[in-house]
């Protein structure tokens, strides 16, 4: 399995960084997680053919995660895609997504390619399930089980001690949002700090932790999230560089 981040910013993008979104490849499948800024462009910059994309995971309805979805579908349609595309998302999100497509006169039954909508996706060599999250909008955390590994992505989440374990969220690799530094974490927030992301990684027995969804002015410098998460997590902490593949291997 390998992953590549197209962006690691929060809902406020900044120079050189856009909305949090990543591509995952495993068992011959390619999955886009949240739609970011312009996934078709990013995929091509990474040498990936968007026409071969197998699935898109949508975690929740905030614009920084879902906003570019109609443009993604429009681009794939214009490119002449014929391969079926699986959309994995919370079932409650389906009507909104269809409404969003309809705004641009896109209707699944009239597209050049078939779209499937489901809350889970089990395909050869990969299982994608969604676990309930904890955010200001209903959100779900995609969990990938593939190549003997489990990867969990929290998307936007308010950390609560023990919540991941209660969900059976043990994993090898955790991708956790770290919108704020711990000292700048607002009291009524629906997000987490890097410090809490480290706690979560420890609780669920992760070997490595990728941090994302940074609000730039909430940290003193680019390394601070890693330093902070390392205070609460003894495993490897990664602040992913954009447009770079990270291999995920059992070790
Ligand atoms: Zn967000
Ligand atoms: Zn959100």
Description:
The radius of gyration is 17 Å and the shape is globular. The protein has helices at residues 39-45, 63-66, 69-78, 94-103, 163-166, 194-203, 224-229, and strands at 2-7, 21-26, 29-33, 55-57, 85-88, 115-118, 120-123, 126-132, 140-146, 149-153, 173-177, 208-212, 236-238, 245-247. It has a single domain (2-247), classed as Ribonuclease Z/Hydroxyacylglutathione hydrolase-like (Metallo-beta-lactamase, Chain A, 4-Layer Sandwich). The protein is 20% helix and 27% strand. It is an alpha/beta fold and 251 residues long. The longest helix is centred in the first third of the chain and has 10 residues, at 69-78. 43% of the residues are buried. The chain has a seven-stranded mixed sheet, with helices on one face. Strands 7-8-9-10-11-12-13 form a seven-stranded mixed sheet.
Layout of secondary structure:
Blueprint: E1 2-7, E2 21-26, E3 29-33, H1 39-45, E4 55-57, H2 63-66, H3 69-78, E5 85-88, H4 94-103, E6 115-118, E7 120-123, E8 126-132, E9 140-146, E10 149-153, H5 163-166, E11 173-177, H6 194-203, E12 208-212, H7 224-229, E13 236-238, E14 245-247
Parallel strand pairs: 3-4, 4-5, 5-6, 10-11, 11-12, 12-13
Antiparallel strand pairs: 1-2, 1-14, 2-3, 7-8, 8-9, 9-10
The structure holds zinc ion (2 copies).
């Amino acid at each position: 399995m390998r992953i590549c981040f197209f962006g690691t910013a929060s809902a406020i993008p900044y120079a050189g960084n856009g909305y949090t979104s990543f591509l995952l490849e495993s068992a011959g499948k390619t999955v886009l997680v949240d739609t970011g800024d312009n996934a078709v462009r990013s995929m091509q910059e990474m040498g990936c053919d968007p026409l071969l994309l197998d699935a898109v995971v949508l975690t929740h309805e905030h614009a920084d995660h879902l906003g570019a979805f109609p443009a993604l579908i429009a681009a794939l349609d214009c490119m002449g895609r014929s391969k079926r595309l699986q959309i994995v998302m919370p079932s409650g999100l389906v009507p909104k997504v269809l409404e969003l497509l309809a705004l641009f006169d896109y209707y699944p039954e009239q597209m050049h390619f078939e779209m499937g909508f489901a809350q889970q996706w089990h395909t050869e060599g990969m299982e994608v399930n969604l676990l309930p999250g904890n955010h200001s909008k209903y959100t779900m955390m995609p969990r990938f089980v593939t190549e003997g590994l489990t990867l969990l992505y929290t998307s936007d989440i308010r950390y609560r001690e023990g919540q991941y374990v209660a969900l059976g969220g043990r994993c090898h690799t955790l991708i956790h949002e770290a919108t704020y530094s711990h000292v700048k974490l607002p009291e009524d927030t629906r997000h987490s700090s890097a410090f809490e992301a480290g706690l979560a990684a420890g609780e669920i027995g992760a070997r490595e932790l990728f941090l994302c969804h940074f609000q730039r002015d909430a940290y003193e410098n680019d390394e601070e999230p890693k330093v902070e998460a390392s205070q609460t997590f003894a495993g490897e902490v990664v602040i992913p560089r954009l447009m770079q593949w990270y291999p995920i291997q059992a070790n």
